[in-house]
Amino acid sequence: MAVVGGAAAPPLILKLLLSLLLCFNYSSPTLIQAAGKWEPWEDRYPFIREASSFSSSSSSSNNGNNIKTYDYIIVGGGTAGCPLAATLSQKFSVLLLERGGVPFANANVSFMQNFHIALADTSPSSASQYFLSTDGVFNSRARVLGGGTCINAGFYTRAGPSYIKKAGWDSKLVNESYPWIEKQIVHKPNLAPWQRAVRDSLLEIGISPFNGFTYDHIYGTKVGGTIFDRFGRRHTAAELLASANPKKLDVLVHATVQKIDFDTSGKKPRAVGVIFKDENGNQHKAFLSKRKGSEIIVSSGAIGSPHILMLSGIGPKAELEKLNIPVVLDNKFVGQGMSDNPLNTIFVPTNRHVEQSLIQTVGITKEGVYIEASSGFGQSGDSIRCNHGVASAEIGQLSTIPPKQRTFEAIEAYRRSKKNIPHELFRGGFILEKIATPLSRGNISLVTTNADDNPSITFNYFSHPRDLKRCVDGIRIVEKIAKSKHFTNYTQCDKETLDKLLNMSVQANVNLIPKHTNNTQSLEQFCKDTVITIWHYHGGCHVGKVIAPDYRVLGVHRLRVIDGSTFEESPGTNPQATVMMMGRYMGVKILRERLGRAAGL
Questions:
Q1: For the segment 405-421, what is each residue's pLDDT rounded down to a tens digit?
Q2: What does pLDDT average to over the chain?
Q3: Annotated active-site residue in 254, 307, 388, 536
Q4: What percent of the chain has pLDDT over 70?
């Protein structure tokens, strides 16, 4: 059975298919639309293969020993890795290794209606890999070609000019790289009623001016872009591979990199290849070309990149030696300085069905917080039966109980009892507040030498007092929105329904507006107790500590890191636009440095 979706699919048919597919991991072949025609994804991306198909031998090899080599090996086919690979393949041979599968045949990835199910899927084949930080906050990292663009809320917005300047990027090339992304996968949203109410309420309480629809990062209220099209179908970074040179690009899925291989015979270690495991557990080695300029580029994200560096022997010496990992380079900063933008939210119950929506409207405040919203993901029948991601009590998110008390036993007990809770109590939406630039810092440390295992991850939410103050300011803004006249028609509940909501709030783990809003201390506790993630974690491979300004790893040859692990701050209100831009930007920059004007880019 083929899934028919995208721009030409009739909305009614699409809705019927979504209903049929809900709550299932759908993985049969699918059709995609290209140039107005429907075709199997394998025809559009013939260079994507299973890792087990890899062979290191080549009859066309020019190195004299029939070993196939690549000019670039990219570890991680995610938000940065896909545009980077597509760009570099224009002139050089590229091998892109992705530990997950393809997104094209996965309905939980492809359709907005299934957003919550994809996040709550904890199976080994899921596009989302669950982890629990030592802070007690449940979190997810992508495990699929296209990375975080396959499991996020889809909001697309650029970084501000000051961020670009601070990063040391060439603004002209940046402003060429963003549109390269936007022309291929970004859309203007059809604003949902909940999003319109949030927009109008933000303006009513003074988060102004209204900047209309824009990708730009500007103080006030705006509507941003989305990677969901008008039929609710997601377009991911994996689709940027359509811009690649298919003759120079190999993409291997279910290729889990175990470590980077180094030649340590010289003054500095030199990256020479990558050892990876295929879907059957068999091990392979890919070799880097000996040509000048060839490099291995790690683009595995804020968790994956420092993790791979440490597994490869680059990191704090004492930590590596504890797990008997041969030390290639002692660098105490690898995995340090991790940060996650804390998210707190308030559930606004409604007296009617609410259309499903993910982030479309944003308030960019001068208090250092961003206001966003989602709606409708807790009220449908599938949400009563299934785990459901961002609006999910089952996985500990949006919970009124403190993070470290969110046990699996408590989650399972709630899931069993949820069926007995009146269905109408799940109707409503969420108003979200995110700290813009948290000062609290954490770290990553190894637990095992198994690349499939998550490292130990600590973010130390609200350990810096400024972050806590900003959260309090943000919750006060959210309260004003929830009480604004534009929400009046949504929230006029009768007394019986309100009583039910209050009585079930702890059992059902649904956040309500704090009762003592004039008490700063109670709001501080609310922030600490209800903190969750919006998956915008970053850091671990910072410039000047782990990498140079050109993203080359300090102390070794032929190795770079290009992704969100290099960020000191998360760009814009939501980072995916800038991470994709960074992949394109650095690809062009590398080609220009290597080829000069002959790059043609």
A1: 656 666 566 566 656 65
A2: 84
A3: 536
A4: 77
Q: Which of 587-594's residues contact partners 24+ apart within 8 Å by CB, and which partners?
A: 587/83, 587/84, 587/85, 587/86, 587/87, 587/88, 588/87, 588/173, 588/176, 588/177, 589/170, 589/173, 590/88, 590/295, 591/87, 591/88, 591/90, 591/91, 591/92, 594/91, 594/293
Strands 283-288 and 69-70: parallel
**Please, are residues 311 and 327 in contact by the beta-carbon 8 Å criterion?**
no
**Positions at the binding site:** 98-99, 144, 257, 535-536, 564, 575-576
pLDDT per position as a tens digit, 433-489? 999 999 999 999 999 999 999 999 999 999 999 999 999 999 889 888 888 888 777
Residue 494 has pLDDT above 60, yes or no: no
Q: Is 423 a catalytic residue?
A: no
pLDDT at 375: 87
Q: What is the CA radius of gyration of the chain?
A: 24
**Residue closest to 131 by CA, chosen among 396, 441, 399:** 396
* pLDDT tens digit sequence for 299-349: 999 999 999 999 999 999 999 999 999 999 999 999 999 999 999 887 777
Residue that the structure tokens 């900003």 belong to: 470
Question: What sign results for the dihedral spanned by CA atoms 24, 25, 31, 35?
Answer: positive
CATH code of the region 47-52+66-183+233-337+536-596: 3.50.50.60
Q: Quick check: do 47-52+66-183+233-337+536-596 and 191-222+341-434+461-529 share a fold? A: no
CATH of region 191-222+341-434+461-529, choose from 3.30.410.40, 3.30.450.200, 3.40.640.10, 3.40.50.10740: 3.30.410.40
What confidence score (pLDDT) does residue 243 get?
97
Q: What's the residue count for the chain?
A: 601
Alpha-carbon distance of 99 to 86, in angstroms, equals 18
DSSP string, 41-108: HHHH-TTEEEGGG--SB-TT-SSSS-B-EESEEEE--STTHHHHHHHHTTTS-EEEEESSB-STT-HH
Token pair 């992704």: residue: 563
The two tokens of residue 29 are 């072949």
What is the rounded distance in angstroms from the CA atom of residue 341 to the CA atom of residue 335? 17
Determine contact, residues 98/252, Cβ cutoff 8 Å.
yes
Domain residue ranges in the chain: 47-52+66-183+233-337+536-596, 191-222+341-434+461-529
Which residues fall in the annotated binding site for FAD? 98-99, 144, 257, 535-536, 564, 575-576
Distance CA 46, CA 26 (A): 21
